[in-house]
Amino acid sequence: MSKENHKGFFAGLLDIPEEGSSPERYRVLRRNIIILMLMITIIPLLLMGIINFYQYQQVVKNEVLTPLRVIVNKTKHSLELFLAGRVSTLRFISSAYNFEYLADEKNLNRIFKALKQEFPGFIDVGLIDAAGLQVSYAGPYELTGKDYSDQAWFQQVRVNGVYVSDVFMGYRKFPHIATAVQHIDDSGRAWIIRATINTGMFDELIRSMGLDDHSDAFLINRENVFQTESKFYGKVLTQCEECNLPRSYEPNIIQKRDKFGRDVLISYVFLPRSEYTLVVVKPETDVLKSWYALKSELVLLFLAAVVVILLVVFRLTDVMVRKMRKSDEKREQAMREMQHTHKLSSIGRLAAGVAHEVNNPLAVINEKAGLMKDLIEYTKDFPNKEKFLTQTSAIIASVQRCRTITHRLLGFARRMDVEAEVLDLNETLKETLGFL
């Protein structure tokens, strides 16, 4: 694209006016300068603001959400430690005592009393043989002789060696979980120690998280059934509508809208030993309060910068256009004066040419008139001699007058060097008046 094409393209883009000094030209020029200056100032500022906005957003979110992940992870470890401690206790009992000792309910009751003192939360404990029959039982209910051979948990503990149930009510009519471990002695004989644990310990661990009144925390199982009571979303053993979460063994956080229409952050982690999922729900406004405050400050700062830029651009453009207009006016005045000077110079050259052209005929007229005067004077009997002499003298005087005028025109047109000299003011005035 040629230089002329470039010029035409930008002129069409910004509607650049042609040369001139009309008010419309300066109005369009002022508008174009404002547009260009705003483009080269606000667009980079806007891009920088957007980039910083997203960078700050990620940094602030990470700083705000990291404590949430930490508290979920700590509570997960506390829950796993609680369950692992209870399972280890049952393993120790099954390893420390033989089947015959545990089959005596007096011995089992003594062990159960010590168990409750050292490990709160145990409701009962029982010994089950390899056929699924409860041989002995220590607790508030009459379960001796109960057959568990057809229940799924019995088959699972026979296969895996350990079992931790989901929360259930049973005939006890309050939430609890069952844990069971299998022991095989040196002779190959197998038996199972089964105990039930109050889920109140789960509630205590969740309360120890120190959540605010607008937040919620609870446990769910694989089927998204509440294992502990939720503050906002449901009771124990009811279905959790908000808990369709992808499995994650590390604390994960997702954004979601709950059934109350609130934008919430759900932090959760899977507990592999018990197949529970710990869920913490916090309103997004509470978690990201500092981010929202920072976002407002960034927006206000951006708007303030735009206002300052607008004021500076409009003021600076106004000053520039005014100076340009004054400069153009001075330039046009100088051009007019120069044109006037050129006109005077042309007039001077024209006058000089005319003077030269007039001088030649005047010289002829002067010579002819002088000749005629001489002939009349030397002819004694010339008729009307005085009259003709008067006429020839008038002709010669007029020629002299015209010659004086042409000489003055030539002097006016002649280029003269400026120098300081003494002048006779009277002569100068007489010469000027005579010229006029």
Secondary structure elements and their pairing?
Elements: H1 3-14, H2 23-96, H3 99-103, H4 105-118, E1 122-129, E2 134-138, H5 152-160, E3 162-164, E4 176-184, E5 190-198, H6 200-207, E6 216-220, E7 252-257, E8 263-271, E9 276-283, H7 284-287, H8 289-378, H9 385-413, H10 425-435
Antiparallel strand pairs: 1-2, 1-5, 3-4, 4-5, 6-9, 7-8, 8-9
Briefly say what this structure is.
By secondary structure, this protein is an alpha+beta fold. It has helices at residues 3-14, 23-96, 99-103, 105-118, 152-160, 200-207, 284-287, 289-378, 385-413, 425-435; strands at residues 122-129, 134-138, 162-164, 176-184, 190-198, 216-220, 252-257, 263-271, 276-283.
How would you characterize the overall build of this protein?
The model is unreliable at 6-21 (pLDDT under 50). The protein has 10 helices and 9 strands. Helix content is 59%, strand content 14%. The chain is of the alpha+beta class and 436 residues long. A hairpin with a 5-residue loop joins strand 4 (176-184) and strand 5 (190-198). It has helices spanning 3-14, 23-96, 99-103, 105-118, 152-160, 200-207, 284-287, 289-378, 385-413, 425-435, and strands at residues 122-129, 134-138, 162-164, 176-184, 190-198, 216-220, 252-257, 263-271, 276-283. It is rod-shaped, with a radius of gyration of 58 Å.
Could you give the count of β-strands?
A: 9
Strand order of the largest sheet: 2-1-5-4-3
> What share of residues are in beta strands?
5-15%
Mean pLDDT: 84
List unreliable stretches of 5+ residues: 6-21
Percentage of residues assigned to helices: 55-70%
